[in-house]
Amino acid sequence: MENDDISLDSGEISELDALAALCVEDDAGVDDFLVELGRNLGPGSRRLLQRLAAERQAGRQKRPGGNQAIVGAEAGLREVMAAVRQVGRSDAPVLILGETGTGKEVVARAVHQHSRRAGGPFLRVNCGAIPAELIDSELFGHERGSFTGAVATRKGWFERADGGTLFLDEIGELPLAAQVRLLRVLQDGSFQRVGGEHVLNVDVRLVAATNRDLRQAVGVGAFREDLWFRIAVFPIPLPPLRERLQDIPALAAHFSLRAAERLGLPPRMPDAADLDLLAAYPWPGNVRELASVIERAAILGDGHRLEVARALGAVPTPARATVGETSPAAPVEDLETVIRRHIESVLASCHGRVEGPHGAARLLRVNPHTLRSKMRKLGVDAGRFRA
Ligand SMILES: Nc1ncnc2c1ncn2[C@@H]1O[C@H](COP(=O)(O)OP(=O)(O)OP(=O)(O)O)[C@@H](O)[C@H]1O
Ligand SMILES: [Mg+2]
């Protein structure tokens, strides 16, 4: 229950100040806690909350690598982070799987940071961006003059990542010829530069990521099965954002702070109604899309508030969505109306059921509790749709 009238006495303020100091010390789960606190205490303490959050941000930036905070590490990404810690101790290859924008690169860096190689290099390469004729030279490097254009000796990925981690991003895009070369170096652990005479040995940990179904790619011959077995020793699947709605408040707060800093505006936190809207959206672009919606909300609110509803309204409707029936000439419907009609049409198809395997919440991919509160707010009565 939100209580907007609460005022804090000096004792409570100093208690919260002590809490702020503690928050700066320890990252785990505190963002989530701060957001909950702000939701429950109302505007007075929301201001305090913003100060706490700003202090945390400042504290983070003082620590090396600290701006790589992983929001939800103790919530929606708890299992992922447990896997990261587990595999970090070994040198086994890691394969990170997940939809676009779920945080694969963030997790790849975390694997590096949790390994004995944390002090060594972390090299990210985009496997989709290498022209076929340059693959050998990219992977293994080349000696000066070994081919036209090789004006200087160049180290390849494996040499540059020596003592650290090589992150092969979008590995599903690696052309077949490159897959063969990669497999060879993974099997032998040694290679030669193009045009070179010496055999080189390096100590590199491989982390790969893909948003493609690599098993299916193996099935249709687009990805080599032997390479798949090599890299898929320890797969870490990242859940899409719509399956970890509990992380949305903390992520929104995190991106709001980031946007405020970037725009030079005072940070504004999402309120309960904003959070409901964010929880009801399906997030096809996952965390990256949430970051851009919050940034847009910060720009639209111009330091006064976060304009979440308007920012979400500006999201282009995906082609598969059923809500975009307005013709260009028709007046634009407001977001609440569109959301209400969408909820009603799903409730109708579920005969008014909200919860359970055949309920509207499951179809809409939201928590039943969130859906009920949304329905209350929009005046939707599930009873109307029961047979
Ligand atoms: N848990 C998180 N905490 C904080 N920021 C996150 C988190 N997850 C993702 N991000 C941010 O969201 C953006 C997208 O993350 P990232 O680039 O790791 O996604 P990705 O899965 O590699 O996406 P793609 O498949 O499109 O390459 C980045 O700006 C990243 O910093
Ligand atoms: Mg990526």
TrEMBL record:
This is Sigma-54-dependent Fis family transcriptional regulator. The keyword Transferase does not apply. It comes from Parasulfuritortus cantonensis. PROSITE patterns: SIGMA54_INTERACT_1 (PS00675), SIGMA54_INTERACT_2 (PS00676), SIGMA54_INTERACT_4 (PS50045). Pfam families: AAA_lid_14 (PF25601), Sigma54_activat (PF00158). The keyword Nucleotide-binding applies. PANTHER family: PTS-DEPENDENT DIHYDROXYACETONE KINASE OPERON REGULATORY PROTEIN-RELATED, TRANSCRIPTIONAL REGULATORY PROTEIN. Residues 70-299 form the Sigma-54 factor interaction domain. GO terms for biological process: regulation of DNA-templated transcription. CDD domains: AAA. Keywords: ATP-binding, DNA-binding, Nucleotide-binding. GO terms for molecular function: ATP binding; DNA binding. InterPro entries: AAA+_ATPase, AAA_lid_NorR, P-loop_NTPase, Sigma_54_int, Sigma_54_int_dom_ATP-bd_1, Sigma_54_int_dom_ATP-bd_2.
